[in-house]
Design brief:
The chain is mainly alpha-helical. 67% of the residues lie in helices and 0% in strands.
Length: 149
């Protein structure tokens, strides 16, 4: 008997190709957020939607095998610690919490904004993992048991 979890073979095939493009676009938005519209929040939402796309197309069992959920939880928890460390480095080297302590570089270049791209990456990871894990937990709730996990 065929695996009945997930959607049709057409949706799975499109997802197999498109999820990598969506992830690439999310990272592009995160890394270029100081030069173009976007940044950590917008890129993080895009990355979370790529993971959600896999879960909808293939089902939860495949997603557990494809993504290490515990690692995503650890990354989500560590991202706030990294944000705090960056803030403390701002105090140490820049004189204020979250102060820029890196060189500014050349205008309109990828490494031209000091600590802003680093904050975009940290926020992108936080948003992506948080949003996906919220959906993951909501998908795990069995409504016939009164919302118990």
């Amino acid at each position: 008997m065929k695996d009945q979890q997930g959607m049709s073979i057409i949706v799975k095939t499109v997802t197999r190709v498109s999820v990598w493009l969506i992830l690439l676009y999310g990272w592009y938005i995160i890394l270029h957020g100081h030069l173009t519209p976007g940044g950590g929040f917008a890129g993080g939402v895009i990355i979370a939607l790529a993971f959600l796309n896999v879960m909808l197309a293939y089902g939860k069992d495949f997603t557990v095998k494809w993504l290490n959920i515990q690692f995503l939880k650890d990354m989500e928890a560590a991202s706030i610690t990294l944000f705090l460390v960056m803030g403390l480095l701002g105090i140490s080297f820049g004189g204020a919490f979250l102060a820029n302590f890196l060189g500014k570089g050349k205008l309109f270049h990828l490494f031209s904004a000091g600590t802003i791209p680093l904050f975009n990456v940290i926020i992108g990871i936080k948003v992506a993992m948080s949003l996906f894990l919220v959906v993951w937990v909501l998908a795990d709730i069995d409504s016939t048991k009164g919302g118990e996990l």
